[in-house]
Amino acid sequence: DTLHRIVVASKISSTVDDKKVIIDHYLKMLEEWKNENAMTGLLLFYPNHVVNIVEGRYKCIKEYIFDLRRIESGPESMLTNSKILVLSHNVHQRVYPDYYTKILDME
Description:
The chain is an alpha+beta fold. Helices cover 31% and strands 39% of the residues. The protein is globular and about 40 Å long.
């Protein structure tokens, strides 16, 4: 199975009071995929946006995109206006050995 990488930028929904809700969502997803799809990457929080870099097998990237659509819809959506910035196929090695999160203070 080949390795793929996707970079997505999203606006944080106005319904999200605590960014930890988004972090918890992705950590739960990681736990569910732990054995079959080892997702690695970096989730960067800016004041009103997130940039998510995800590395994984095809199934992992596909499920990530489906999940992104789910968390964008409905009255309790976490993210909006997501844009795929980069989608790389046949990546030779991972940049991130694990999945990391970082909240950036831009002030």
